[in-house]
Amino acid sequence: MPLRKNIIVAIFLFFVLSATAMALHFNGLYGQDAYEYLRLARAFKEMLNEGTGISHSYFPILYPVTGFLLSEILANDILALQVVSMMALTGAFFYLKQLIRQLYGTAYGLTGYLVAFFFFSPYVFRFGLLSMSDMLCLFFVVASVFHVVRYLQLAQDKDAVLFTFFAVVAVATRYAVVPLLIIPALFLLVQLLYRKKWNTLGVVILAAGCILLPDYLLRGRILFFQFQEAELFVDYASNAYSWSPSNFFRSGFDNPDGLQQYTQWNIAAITFQLIHPAFIFTGLLFIFFLKRDDFDTPAAKLLLLMVLVYAFYIAGLQYQNNRYLLQSFPLVVALYYPAFSRIAMKYFKQRNHQWLFFAMVLFMQLLFFSYSFRSVLAMNRAEYAIATSLKDYPGQPIYTCSITGAIVAYEVENPVTDIYFENIDRADSNALLLFNYEAFAEHFAGRKPMMNWDWLNKEYVLTPIRTLPEGWTLYAIKESDATP
Which of 135, 192, 226, 280 is the right S-S partner for 197, CB 3.0 to 4.6 Å? Predict the structure, then answer.
């Protein structure tokens, strides 16, 4: 496609994302992770302006740093983080297009295919609107896979260096993609050693070191290895230690995030990226039209191996999270392309039939997106409403959990104690408790949030003073007559 048409398509895709966000009045903030990324972006700004250090966080800093840099242009850090995701999805679209062309040497209906089945895939479109690291990481993953495929086919040293660059920044954006990228990384290493490309290997190592150096200087950390803490290995939720094949056939877990109960075994959940409407509702149809010779090339085999290895890694974890599957989904889209082109050339040769098919697919994708995005939008609205309502109680200490990030993000100045991390042995005078009993009673059974709830109910009188959205209640903590 000529450069001018690519620019027009890029502007269109970015416009669709930004127009959707504006129409929904959605600022990208949803759940604890988004607020933590915003906190890190602001912490990085404070570090540069005031010389303060960056407080502890499990998360990589590449996404919040990117958001901070863009916020210096946009003068709005919340908007900047969301725009990073929008730009990343737009960029991933074009890198995936190049990857498919490199794999199959054809582009029949490719732009329409990617618009319909990648860009408007409900989960992909969702994360193009969210202020989370997933879409930026996905962009880096697709770019790294493109360059390793080019290296496999052309053996050009520049692709080895570019693969290394994009793979390392992908891992530095989300640690979870290590199992996805380890196979092409090992392949590249073996190839460089076998061909005695010592200079290229040196450049690859230097490039990786330069990317990782800033995090080491800022936090004493290289990826998930930390050198200024008691434990060397950063392992949030104990993923590496808790991985087990026995989790393949489990649907309920007791992990640091609480009690988790799902509707299907892990081994079934990993098929979502292949057939689930949240990703691609035509997945079963595409599988039916695939042929064995679609996987004859080394590049196609590499992609298939990456998808399978990564899926079985995810199946062994102690929880289910479609955010992980999102990272390998572009590879699934690439592998499905021969099936799509086969269907299109056989059943949709006429132009009007092609447009009708395209319109029907878009309608279904937007329908599934609308359905799945309702809970995201409701949570976003609730978090904002709850945080702003707390400004009616200036100065009063607040005890809460799971929503601390939103309270801080929306600049509520009350002192906040997160009872997920701390055991309370006394409550400050005039304090408030912000709690969601319905959501926490089972999820945090036997953990600090419910233990603190029980202790406060025993030692104090909790008086509801405000009912808030999504099951939240604000309580006044008052001294009990029985309290000494």
Answer: 192
Q: What angle do CA 331, 336, 339 make, to 5 degrees?
A: 165
Tokens representing 71 are: 């916020």
Q: What is each CA distance from 325 to 42, 123, 151, 314, 319, in whole angstroms?
A: 29, 10, 25, 8, 13
Q: Exposed e or buried b for every residue in 365-394, given b needs 16+ CB within 10 A?
A: beebbeebbeebeebbebbbebbebbeebe
Q: If we measure between CA atoms, which residue out of 121, 123, 135, 137 comes closest to residue 90? A: 135
CA separation for the pair 57, 36 (Å, rounded): 8
Between 62-74 and 157-173, two packed helices, what is the crossing angle to 10 degrees?
90
Beta bridge partners of 417: 399
Long-range contacts, stretch 261-265, CB < 8 angstroms, 24+ apart: 262/320
Helix, coil or strand: residue 123: helix
Give Cα 476 distance to the centre of its chain.
36
- Are 299 and 102 in contact, with CB atoms under 8 Å apart? yes
How far is CA 91 from each of CA 77, 141, 269, 379, rounded to the nearest angstrom?
21, 11, 28, 28
Rounded CA gap, 417 and 425, in Å? 12
**What tokens appear for 440 in the block?**
């926490």
CB 354 within 8 A of CB 111: no
pLDDT at res. 483:
45
What is the pTM assigned to this prediction? 0.93
Do 266 and 252 form a contact (C-beta atoms < 8 A)?
no
CA distances (Å), origin 251, targets 265, 269, 314: 5, 9, 13
> Using CA atoms, how far apart are residues 390 and 236, in angstroms rounded to an integer?
30
Mark out the alpha helices in 155-282 (DSSP H runs). Answer: 157-173, 178-194, 198-219, 239-242, 266-269, 272-275
Q: What is the crossing angle of helices 351-389 and 322-347, to 10°?
A: 160
- Chunked in runs of 10, what are the mean pLDDT values of the chain (484 residues)? 82 96 96 92 85 70 92 95 98 96 90 96 97 97 97 91 93 91 92 86 84 74 65 54 86 80 92 95 95 94 96 90 94 97 89 89 96 95 96 94 93 93 87 95 90 93 94 92 50
What is the torsional sign of CA 274, 278, 280, 282?
positive
CA 75 to chain centre: 24
Model pLDDT, residue 54: 67
Distance of CA 46 to CAs 52, 53, 68, 78, 407, Å?
6, 8, 10, 16, 19
